[in-house]
Specification:
Layout: H1 3-21, H2 26-37, H3 50-61, E1 75-80, E2 90-100, E3 107-114, E4 120-123, E5 132-135, E6 149-150, E7 158-164, E8 167-173
Antiparallel strand pairs: 1-7, 2-3, 2-4, 3-5, 4-6, 7-8
Length: about 180
Amino acid sequence: MKMSRVLPVVAFLPTLAALSSAPAYAGDFGCKVLLCILNPQGWASVGECVPPVERAFRMVAHGEPWPQCPEAGSSGRIGYEKFKPCPDGMIAVSSETESSGSDNSSRSQTVYKPDSNGAFCAPRNATYASWGTNRGGSGYGTRPTSAVTPRERRTEPNYLDLTTTDGKQRFWFDLSRYQ
């Protein structure tokens, strides 16, 4: 994290404590959440941050937008990515079963096709038809699926892309307990 972001957050923590006991204004909530999220030690490390950030998570989990802080010129975009990226040299793929032949000599083959949301990773330099298994066939034109591996799931699949006057930053979290 840039030092320019750390100093304003650290300097504002006493003000944050004062805001929690002062009468609330419409913009205060979003700004309080913003300052808490930007805390370099994490939002949960400051007791005054836990209630507003958890409230923001509950709001988002129930379909409301991320709270804004117009005074800071910030905006937030919520997203979800179930899986971590594939390792270098691999691409995300999903599996499909393809059938061919007549009813008497039907063959089915599992193929893996490029898919940014796919649950598997496969070598980048192969074509999708080169991964797969034939059931009841000779395996002609296919390679073993051992080159295809499951993608690692994220423990915190939700994210906030926060844009401020200092740039963009992504924060990962898990909304499942707030639903």
